[in-house]
Amino acid sequence: MKKSRRAATYEDIEALPVGWVGEILEDELVASPRPALPHARVGLALSALLGMAFDLGQPETRGGWWLLYEPELHLGGNVLVPNLAGWRRERVPLPSFKDAPFATVAPDWICEILSPASVNIDRERKLPLYHREGVGHVWLVDPPTQTLEIHRRRARGWRLIARHTGDQEVFAEPFDALALRLGALWWPRVPNARGEPAGR
Predict the structure, then answer these.
(1) 115-126 pLDDT per residue, tens
(2) Element holding 200 (H helix, E strand)
(3) Is 187 strand, coil or helix?
(4) Per-residue pLDDT at 193 exceeds 60
(5) What does the longest C-alpha to C-alpha distance in the chain come to?
(6) pLDDT tens track for 20-73
(7) Is the dihedral of CA 164, 123, 151, 102 positive or negative?
(8) Residue 12 and residue 4 in contact, taking contact as beta carbons nearer than 8 Å
(9) Residue 99: burial class (beta carbons within 10 Å; 0-12, 13-18, 19+)
(10) What residues contact 185, with CB distance under 8 A and at least 6 apart?
(11) Surface-to-core class of residue 128, CB atoms within 10 Å of its CB (0-12 exposed, 13-18 middle, 19+ buried)
């Protein structure tokens, strides 16, 4: 993880090497390398499962959403790039960012897929910013431990309302109209010498 020591500008993001993702958190440039493939797998699976159910499929049956993969958010002087984000269509009927390279309207839901390079930033620095901007729900997904945490916004801070692991079928806010099979997100664990799944 690379961090600058001065007030960062968007030019600092544009100057990053290819393959790095830049964000500005409270005037500080935070740059992270592209994540490992299991991380990318989770992003693809969630995009497909939630996208078909709530955006591209029949959104009128479950409540319509605009869902985006790795959108750039410009919120209160910060530049953030969550792994996934969603806006309720009832709140944002026609997204003002549809012709723009970034969004200035805070999402209703954000998902961060944790990696060793980003876990502290996601938990300690980005969660407070998301709360301040009025995001209603945040999911934290950890591929190595096959865990999904669901956080709901309160007046002060976040409430961890559920923590699911493994291959459970879950009804996860704010998409609890869908039965989400967690096992669809993970790559199978490699068996150890005794034929047991590694890492358990």
Answers:
(1) 888 899 999 999
(2) none
(3) coil
(4) no
(5) 55
(6) 888 889 889 988 888 788 889 999 999 999 999 999 866 555 568 999 999 999
(7) negative
(8) yes
(9) exposed
(10) 41, 42, 45, 46, 141, 143, 146, 148
(11) middle
Q: What is the DSSP letter of 51?
A: H
**What is the rounded distance in angstroms from the CA atom of residue 126 to the CA atom of residue 150?**
15
Angle at 114 between CA 123 and CA 178, to 5 degrees: 100
pTM of the complete model beyond 0.70: yes
Q: How many other CB atoms are found less than 10 A from the CB of residue 186?
A: 18
Pick from 5-19, 23-37, 70-84 the range whose average pLDDT is largest: 70-84
Give the closest residue to 82 by CA, choosing from 29, 156, 138, 27. 138
Nearest Cα to Cα of residue 141 among 157, 170, 163: 163
Report how far residue 198's alpha carbon sits from residue 200's, in angstroms, rounded to the nearest whole number. 6
CA gap 90, 135 in Å, rounded: 15
Tokens of 69: 């993969």
The CA radius of gyration of the chain, in Å to the nearest whole number, is 17
Name the token pair of 133. 């901007």
